[in-house]
Amino acid sequence: MAHADLRVVNARVVTPGETLIGGVAARDGTIVAVGSESSLPDADRTIDAAGNYLIPGFIDPHVHWGLSRYEYEYHEGLAHDFETETRGAVHGGVTTVVNFLLQPDPYVPDMDYFVEAGEENSYIDFAYHAIMHKEPHFDEVEALAEKGVRSFKIFYNWYKHASPELGIEHSDSGRVYRLLDRVSDIDGGVVMFHAENEDLAHERRAELKAEGRNDLQAWSESAPNICEAMQIESIAKLTEYTDSTSYVVHMSTGEGVDICRRYQEQGVDISAETLPAFLAHTNDKDLGVWGKISPPLRGESSKQKLWQGLREGVVDYAGTDHCPHRKPFKEKDGGKYGDIWEAIPGDNNGIEYFLPVMMSEGVNEGRISMERLVEVCAENNAKRWGLYPRKGALVEGADTDMVIVDLEKSAVVDDEFYHTMEPRYSTFHGEELTGLPTHTIVGGEVVVENGTLQVEKGGREYLPRHADGVAIE
Ligand SMILES: [Zn+2]
């Protein structure tokens, strides 16, 4: 058997068919063998996994690079965030990312820049979704698909009452219908939804402010569970009517799980993603404005139902909704316990805590098996976004993107924990997490070893998405 560059041995290797004792060998960034140690070729370098798990690197399908545009121009912000946030990603065991493009101008004329910004600055391969919110965006569906962008996010009702300064337009049912209908003609096309009803939330915010409330629980009460349920119900009906494919991002409620299950059983192509924050936190936690995310944190029963949904296949995807904001910007200079209504929604550092939280709260707490976790955080994300089997699985021919996970290794999330732009806060700050990566390997290169970065940024690839996965070459 031909010599390999790298081998990982003495591992519990999670593959799509089975978890086996052995290892993986790679040459030129591609997996050439998976199996027992004696079946693997010799290699220039061998890493002993010490009996730990070897899994495909996580794929984060939900991040917002470019939010540091509040300090830089948007395009500079995108390049900036690719460097700082994917540096965090590799420390946390995430090896592919799908970022949401968001700008008022049409996207297609800027695609070359978007690709270059990632290629020059990212530590991992990347793909894109586009947020459709200005009228000209809706005419770009086919041209974006040509460029490898086949997923289109829409704010259905949400942001209807937002200040025009935010620069994001909401969409009504008519526009949603138009987008679903158009994307249903795109091979592999998916419409992604932020599912919250802002008409209701707008009224609730006014009531709670009038009562003088200024606490995290009030933020949750301002967008009650039915805000999400109402929109998911409408999304499912419109998806059925247009015979299209829809995907609910950051689903937070047990009601959402029930509605998705009901429509899925009827054969409607609606799927859902949830976040570590909704699987680990509840709205009574003392997080101050750091816990202000959108949709808001929920109660214990939603948390339980989301785990159940993940186990049972109603919820098939996990991501982070990582929003890189500087701390003073997030807090609007009011500190951790400042004005909850003025603070900026969004959680920081998600991509770096993604794997540790899922290991700590999921596998180590017995809420989910390692195999199902790998499906929802790697394999399914690769399939959904047209990257499989090049990404998301430890199989011959795939990219060598993999992580060794020590389920007993733990760390407290403090200022030293993160390697992103802003390590000083997240919704997990101060918590201890157990189940951490010891090695992150990207494209056959060991990029992080025991907490130390081994490579320079850049040299990664844009992944134009195909209708039915990226074929192994
Ligand atoms: Zn988001």
What can you tell me about this protein's structure?
- This protein has 473 residues and is of the alpha/beta class.
- The protein has a domain at 57-384: TIM Barrel.
- The protein is built from 13 helices and 17 strands.
- Strands 1, 2, 3, 4, 5, 14, 15, 16 and 17 form a nine-stranded mixed beta sheet that branches. An eight-stranded parallel beta sheet has the order 6-7-8-9-10-11-12-13.
- Strand 15 and strand 16 form a beta hairpin.
- Helix 1 runs parallel beside helix 12 (350-363) and helix 5 packs across helix 6 (216-222).
- The longest helix has 19 residues, at 74-92.
- The relative contact order is 0.16.
SSE layout and pairing:
Layout: E1 4-14, E2 19-27, E3 30-35, E4 43-48, E5 53-56, E6 58-63, H1 74-92, E7 94-101, H2 111-121, E8 125-131, H3 141-146, E9 151-156, H4 173-183, E10 190-195, H5 198-210, H6 216-222, H7 225-242, E11 246-248, H8 254-265, E12 270-274, H9 276-280, H10 300-312, E13 317-318, H11 327-331, H12 350-363, H13 370-384, E14 402-412, E15 432-442, E16 445-449, E17 452-453
Parallel strand pairs: 1-4, 1-5, 6-7, 7-8, 8-9, 9-10, 10-11, 11-12, 12-13
Antiparallel strand pairs: 1-2, 2-3, 5-14, 14-15, 15-16, 16-17
This protein binds zinc ion (ZN).
Q: Notable features of this structure?
A:
17 strands; 9-stranded mixed sheet; alpha/beta; 8-stranded parallel sheet; TIM Barrel; 473 residues; binds zinc ion; 32% helix
- Assign the CATH superfamily of the domain at 57-384: Metal-dependent hydrolases
Largest sheet properties: 9 strands, mixed
CATH topology of the domain at 57-384: TIM Barrel
Question: Helix-strand pattern, N to C?
Answer: EEEEEEHEHEHEHEHHHEHEHHEHHHEEEE
| Cofactors, ions, other ligands | zinc ion
The class by helix and strand makeup works out as alpha/beta
